[in-house]
Structure formats: structure tokens, C-alpha cells
Amino acid sequence: MSELNSLEKNSVFDSYQVGEHIYDEVFGSVGKSRKHYQKVLNHFGKYSVKDFQKLNESAKVSFFNQGVTFAVYSDNMKGVERIFPFDLFPRIIAFKEWEKLEKGVIQRNIAINLFLHDLYHDKKILKDKVVPAELIFSSAHYNRDMIGIKPPGGIYTHIAGTDLIKHKDGEYYILEDNVRCPSGVSYVLSNREAMKRTLSNLFLSYNVMPVDDYPEQLLEAIQSVAPENVDNPTCVVLSPGMYNSAYYEHTFLAQGMGIPLVEGRDLFVDKNFVYMKTIYGPQRVDVIYRRVDDDFIDPMVFKPESVLGIPGIMTAYRDGNITLLNAPGTGVSDDKAVYSYVPAIIKYYLGEEAILNNVHTYRCEIASDYKYVMENMENLVVKPVDESGGYGIFIGRNSTKKLQEEFKQAITANRRKYIAQPIMSLSTHATFIDEGECFEPRHIDLRTYCLMGKNKQFVLKGGLSRVALKKGSLIVNSSQGGGSKDTWVLEE
Amino acid sequence: MLSRIANSLFWMGRYLERAQHTARFVKVHYYSSLDAPLMLKKEFVLESILSMTGLSIEYKKGHTELVDVDVSKYVAIDESNPFSIKNCISNARENARGAKGLLSSELWEAINKFYHYVNNFSEKDLENQGVANFTENTVEYCSIVNGYIDNTLLHNDTWALIHLGMHIERAGQITRIISSKVKDLAKIEKQKLGVALETYQCITLLKSAEAFDMSRIHYKCVPNFKNTMEFLILNKEFPRSICYNINEINKSLARLGFAKSADKDSLEFFVGKTAAAINYLTIEEIESSIGEFLKETLDQIYFIGTNTEHNYLSY
Questions:
Q1: Interface contact B238, partner A, CB < 8 A
Q2: Which of A383, B67, B286, B310 has the fewest CB atoms within 10 Å around its CB?
Q3: Between chains, do B2 and A64 touch, taking CB under 8 Å as contact?
């Protein structure tokens, strides 16, 4: 009790109030912290507000000088460089909790790979009517060029970014699967670096699992899927270029793995093999970790106006002369509508129950679901299945009667087009707020990074905890005022 | 190494070196103008700065008068001037960013810090702190970056390409600096301003290449026109002489080994010939026609620069 008392006297946590019906990661209820956070709280208890502001400042300078910035372009041609806001209070995940999470993420991604292989080969799951065929064939991301291609090791989604939230019941739920070109992992490593520089003492009282093995693990995964009969594969990272918002990450990963960072204009295809232009002549390339979207990768097959891609590369891919990570056409499996089938997909291929929860999804085409949606509009989020980027979404909370009616009509007119989900409450976490000069609860989510290679599965022990810095906001995206935290997975 | 990346490294070296020489020239002339003999009007100094940076014509397009604040601003931070120090550093950093995968993070951080310093330096700062402060810091940052280039990189093709760019640029800049001073001296002679001014100009020139102390040690006498020219053009041991830099260009190219053999039509052959010529030149041979000699040398250096890029670094 004495420790709790000292906390209450400490002004930085004084006004901390956990919201109603919300799970707070640090404080169970007012004044009672969770066990694995006790040592951080004791440590922070020694600091004054001024100390925190100083630490904050030095962390910022560290990011700025490292060039860990993203550019915001305005009317001035030169972009203004910003750092991705970073919070000094680490998010801590206890070992037991992580163990389950890791198992769940791997299970999910194994199933997704089997699913993709099936979709581009025998289509058994469609024939067995576990997933409706129309859903797949109508998806913009179903890539007909991939039919019959077997990528090395049978891996499609070598790098997957699975997003999770913790609901008010204290359970993790999958928010979405990102299996195209998930980004953000460089922030995980840079956050850790900044934390070690600014709060080194704090690490001494915990056994935090390292994250800096990610580049090695990634390289191992990349090399494991090289085309057959290539002994010493030349691997590269393909970036759209310096003006891409994730360019820092592309350089970071290439450097971390010690492999070249190339752009489309550095590569060309000759007799169905891929080469890069070097100062000593063309050099053959075997594996490309590409950070360019499907649509742009080959102007001869996809968008003809793309200058980011390499003409003819898909033919080289079909011939098995080059490996692409992730494989083209993976987007069909992280579709919103497919999401609701993932537990069924896991069951179908692995014969197991899903370890991690899906957010319950009502498919309006099913009569009972449709009825429920119509009667509970104010408690639901309604999403069209075939759109992305947050377009056409209806959020029940605080919506007007008029808007509810409009959506009801739209759903009724095309029931297959809509799904609905209960409004999930993201958990909150203590976060240092500059203006308030204290810690306040802010909503967070978690992106995990899962790697798959030939006979290899790896989940980075940590991840990106994104924070919605605006009070009450649930939007964690960096483009809309989101920040991030270092994420600590504790050893047992 | 990718040709595109090699090109970035080469230009990173060139831009860093260009910024450094512009900054040092401005700094030295600014300080020397503070207590210059009366006959050396400020205008004279300003003309000299514009002539060395090759910006005389461009400047006069946008300005009707030669005002020191305007000249400093134009040369140091004007974004409309493609060769202002600010733009050079910004380009150096963009090139470094493109080649970041081959640089040490220490080197990259140093360049990045440098960029943020220059980029955040506003017109107001220039008015408040003066151009001397800005150029002094620029020269210092350049030395820091050069230190990281030499001491944190493998001395392999990455390093050789940066060096190739640097020495080509440095050879060119030194030639321009000498050239502009030779013109100044000719003016002095025309106006019959005397020997004291000749010495004064030679000292300024040597300082512009951070060569004053070393030339004193070397010659053990007050600088005069002849020994100053000899030191800056022909000295084999001073890292900012023309001869030294042409030898370095020769070495960097040999290290990179683009050309397969001693092909007579290769750029390497041309550079080797140029180096041989200057290594066995005496000051007496060129003393009377220094202006002509410098012009020819500058043409050769430009030829080397253009052809390095064209023959080996295009993509």
C-alpha cells in the first residue's frame, strides 16, 4: 500500500482517470496499477514534470538527427519533416499474454497462406462452400496472373502485419490482417533505440525481450525462399523512391540486412531474368523484397503508366526466376469481407479453433444477422465490404436518426454489400501529455510483425503500439495525429 | 554497386566540397574586408565573391546594386540560387539519403544534422548573426562530415566514389579561387596600388584555401605572388593544391578500376596524362601566363567531371 500512496502524491499521475467501460493497460481502477507496471510507476514517480519534458525533448532530438522522419508536403515543394510522435511510457505485455498472442498470430498466418494457395490452385474451400466464391472472384485483389503459380516454400505472405486491439473484456481481438506491404517495423526498432538512450535505468529492472534481431530474421526468411538451384542468392529491397512516405523504413531495412536498396529504374528484365544496373555491369537478382504495391510492379501486366515497376518482371516470376515478397495477389485475403471468414478458414485447413478472437461480424445477407443490424444500428459500425481506406463507414454511436435511416435503406437495397460489427472499445494506456503536463489515458492498438519463410515462422517480440493522442479519439493513424510507444514483451 | 547509387555518392562528394569552398571564401573575405586597406573597397570584395562562385551574372539579373547583405544572402541561403550553400547542402543530403544504405549511420547523422542547421538558418538569422557565423559553422560541419567519411567508412568503392567527387570539385574550386584572385591582382596592378596590397591579396588567397600557415612553414618568408601560386598550384603535399587533387582523382579512378586496361581512349588515360604533366611542371614555365594556364586547367577538370559521370555513372 505504501507504494500506491507514494503514487497518489505524485502529480504526474494525480489526475489519471480510467474511462467507464474501458480496459486500461496500466491501472485496473483508480490508483491500482497492474502488477507488471509497478516498477515503471515507481521509477517515473521519481521524476518531476520538468524532467519528463526534458526527456521528451531529448528523445525527439534523437529521432530528428537519425532522420526518422516522415515528410508532410505543403505548397512549398520541400516537405516539412516531422517525427512520428513517440511516448516515453512503454507498453508492457506479460509473457503469458504474449505467448498466446504469438501462437494465435502464427496460426492465423499459416491458415491464410494455405487459403491463398488454395485460391490460386484447386479452390477447394470455394467448392466446399466454406467461403462464397463470388466474394473472392469479385475482389479487386484477386490476381488472375497468380493462378497456377507456386511460390517457393508455398509462402505468399512472408511479412504480415496483424493489427490487434484489447476490448473492455481484457481480451485481444484481431482488427485486421495486413498481408500486402505492411509497414512500421522501423519505428519499433527506432523506438527501442530511443528508449534505451533516454531511460536506460528502467531497462535494468525488467527483462525485456530484444527486437533488434528483426533484420536478421527478415534476411533469413528472404533467403530461404530464393528460386531453386540458386546457392548464394542476390536479394534486394525495392522501394518506390525517396519521396515515398516510408522511404526511411526501406533504407533502414536494407541497411540492417546489408542488401542493396533498389528502385524500379535500377532493374531490368532480359530473357526472363532480372538484373540490376551496377557500375561494373548488370548483376542478376534472385529475390526482391518489394515495397511497391501489386498494381505498380509490372507496367506490362498491371498499371501501364507505372514508372515504379519493372517491365516484364511478372513473366520472370511465372518462370520461377525471381521471388517476390510478398507474392502478388495476397490482397484478396485481407479484404474486410474475407476477414469474417478467417476463423472458418483456420478450422477448414488446420482443424483447429482460432486462438485469437475475431470481432463478431454480422453479414447482412444472412436473415437473422440482417434483422439484428436493423434493430441495433446505434450500437454498430457498418462497413461496405469492397471499399477500403475508411470510405462509406457508418458509426452508430451519436449518429442521427436520418443517417441511420439512410444506411438502413442502403443495406436493404444491397444486403450482400454490407457487414456490421459491434463498436469495439480500444484499451487505454497512460501517455505523457505535454500540454496537460501529466499522464492521461489514451487509446492504443498493437501491430505485430510475423515473418514466414521456408519452414520458418517468427513473430517479432514486441510490435508497434500506436496511440491516438487526441483525447477520446480512436484513430491511431500517424497521418491523423497518432503516435507510438515502445512495446515490451517480458521474459518469463 | 548500383550505378544510380554511385552517381549519388559522387554528387554527395561534389556538393559537400562546393559548399565548403564557397563558405570558406566568403568567410575569409568577410573578415579581411573588416580591416582592409582603404583602397580595397567593399565593392571589390563583393565582386570577388561573386566572381569566384561564378554567380556574377545571375546575381545582377535579380539585383541592381552590390550590397553586402544581399550578396551574403544570395550566396549563403537564397533558395532561388541553385548554388547557394543552402542548396548545396540540401542536395548533398538528398544524395546521401539515396545512398544511405552504404553509409555509416554516424556519417548519415552528421550530414543530416548539418542539413537541419543550414536549412533552419533564416534571413533573420543571417541579419542578426552575420554571414561570418554561418559560413564558419558551415566549414566546421564540413570538416566533421569529412572526418566521418574518412574514419567510419570502408575505404572501398563507396569511399572512392565520394572522394572522386570531392577531389574533382575541390580541384575546380581551388582553380576558380586562384583565378578570381589573379584577376583581383591584375586590377591592383592596373591601378598601381603597390606591393603591400599584393601581399595582402596573397594572404587572403592562401587563407581561402586554409593554406596560409602551411605556406609560411614551407617558404619561411612573406607570401609573394610567385610562391603563393607555386604552393597552390604545384605543391604535391598540400591537400588543397591543384596538383595534389589531380593526383587524388587519378588514384580514385585507379582504385575503382572502371577501364579494363590502359586504353588510350579511356578517361583514365587522359587523367594520367594530365597528372603527369602537372607533376613535372615548374612555376617558371607558367608564371607569366597564369590566367591562361588556370583556364586550361579548369577546362580539363570539367572534362574529367563530365566524362566520369557520362562514362561510368549513368543509369
A1: no
A2: B310
A3: no
What cell does B45 get?
570584395
Higher pLDDT, B39 or A104: A104
Checking if the pLDDT of A68 tops 80, the result is no
d(CA B25, CA B127): 19
What distance in Å separates the CA atoms of residue B175 and residue B295, rounded to the nearest whole number?
Answer: 8
Inside any domain, residue B165: no
Query: What domain count does chain B have?
Result: 2
Tell me, what DSSP letter sits at residue A317?
A: H
Q: Where are the domains of chain A?
A: 360-422
Among all residues of chain B, which has the CA nearest to that of A279?
Answer: B3
Partnered with residue A236 across adjacent β-strands are: A288
Is there a contact between A254 and B101 if contact means CB atoms under 8 Å apart?
yes
pLDDT, position B196: 73
User: Which of chain A's residues have a Cβ under 8 Å away from the Cβ of B5?
Assistant: 260
Asked whether residue B161 is domain-assigned, the answer is no
Name which CATH class applies to A360-422: alpha beta
Chain B residues with CB-CB distance to A64 below 8 A: 116
Query: pLDDT tens, A188-230?
Result: 999 998 899 888 889 998 999 999 999 999 999 999 999 998 9
Band (pLDDT 50/70/90 cuts) for residue A299 is confident
pTM for this prediction? 0.82
pLDDT tens for each residue of B155-206: 999 999 999 999 999 999 999 999 988 988 888 777 766 677 788 889 999 9
Residues B140 and B14 in one domain: yes
Instruction: Return the exposure string of A159-184: e unless at least 16 CB atoms fall within 10 Å of the residue's CB, then b.
Output: bbbbbbbbbeeeebbbbbbbbbbbbb
Same domain assignment for residues B1 and B146: yes
What confidence tier does A31 reach under pLDDT thresholds 50, 70, 90? Answer: low
Nearest CB to A277; choose among B2, B105, B109: B2
Domain hosting B104: range is 1-153
SS3 sequence of A167-192: CCCCCEEEEEEECCCCCCHHHHHHHH
Give the tens place of pLDDT for each residue, A339-353.
989 999 999 999 999
Tell me: do B149 and B175 sit in the same domain: no
Cell representation of residue B164: 572522386
Contact yes or no for B3 and A263 at CB 8 A: no
Q: Is residue B273 part of a domain?
A: yes
B205 within a domain of the structure (yes/no): yes
Phi first, then psi: give them for residue A385, nearest 5 degrees: -75, -25
